[in-house]
Write a structure and sequence with these properties.
The protein is mainly alpha-helical. Helix content is 63%, strand content 10%. The chain has a two-stranded antiparallel sheet. Helix 1 crosses helix 2, helix 1 runs antiparallel to helix 4 and helix 2 packs antiparallel against helix 3. The protein starts with a strand and ends in a 15-residue tail after the last helix. The relative contact order is 0.15.
Amino acid sequence: MIYQLVLLPRFSKYNLNYPFFYSRTCRVTQKRKCTLPQPHDQSIRRTAFIADTTALIIFFTTTGIINERFVAGMSWDQVLHARLIGAVLMVPVARPYGLWRDWVMQCARSGRISKVLWDSIALVSFQVPIYAAIIAFSGASGSGLVQGTLGATLMMLLLGRPYGAFLNWIRKLFGLPPGGAKPMSLGD
């Protein structure tokens, strides 16, 4: 019989900011690893969904208005229409983007340039196709659609890290750890 110590992150009921670790021993036979399932907490998932959605709506409603009005040249009615559609689409997209960003940011090193690069890659690769569809559906066409999409790409390249920092700040306000931490991610 061989015993292995397994450390699992767990959140206290009273303080979701800092995980504490508890250990258990378990029996290992032959060459199999013994792993204990991490407890799933619906309230943490719900809080993460609300935090990611809040961050996405606030940040990209503001930047979307600037891009649509002053770069794409859309009328105020078209901007309003695009932002209403955008807000509705951001609700189901926000948490998957948060998970996508957490996964992509695992490639980032601790340096500032690496974080800027990977945050920008995450944002552009996930949000630009969605944004192009939103403004096309809202009435942008031809050169306006191309300019709006290119403007959004440029803005998202520049705003990738600021949005990542804003998202982490919102998560902190909701008592959640920053992105990339195991309790925020799905899977193993």
